[in-house]
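Possible regression after last week's pipeline update?

I re-ran a chain I had predicted before the update to compare outputs. Posting the input and the new output here so someone can diff against the archived version. Not blocking, just want to make sure nothing changed silently.
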Amino acid sequence: MHRSILLSLAASAAAAPLAKRSGTVYGFDVSDYQPNVNMQAAYNSGLRFVFIKATQGTDYISPSFNSQYTDATNAGFIRGGYHYADGTGDGSQEADYFLAHGGGWSDDGITLPGMLDLEADCKSVSWIQTFSDTYHSRTGVYPILYSSPSWWEQCTGNSDAFVNTNPLFMACYNSEPCTPQGDWPYYTFWQYNDDNANGGDSDQFNGDYAQLQAIARG
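New output (post-update):
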């Protein structure tokens, strides 16, 4: 995740009061750019959740996903897969591809709902809605939506269409959280840098560990 969309974030949105939950849980996200991440060492360092890239578009499966996901499970992480939206298919097609290759969800307390990574070329509100509805119809939960405030404003007109259904994963490289986009009252996850000591990007969950487990239970 990240790269192109995050360069201007520090200046794009000032920190603002949030409807914040109690506590903070630290985690990270990884992709095939970090094929040899040591999940046990990451867990031992205090991280408790991880998102792992599974798919992109309708024609790419991360070659690292299966091993990373297994290692994360064995290390004790709450974990989930994510899908990088690139527009090679419509929303339904990309959701189906994600679900067929690691993006599923189960009510086991350790599997996070799949995350839709929105940072490449703009996707319309309709495209995102179709992906979200397809994922929900197949799993019973709505996917987490990842974007920066600037991407969301530019590509969706700062739509509030998902506030009541989809958790927000906000990309904001700043010392304090940005103002959540799209009228979300708070972020659920916050990606705050791309230099985690264990590899990948550094993330926070806006709540305590029990609340993180509740997200995993749907």
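Follow-up from reviewer: compared with the archived run. The first helix runs from residue 9 to 12. Marking as no regression found.
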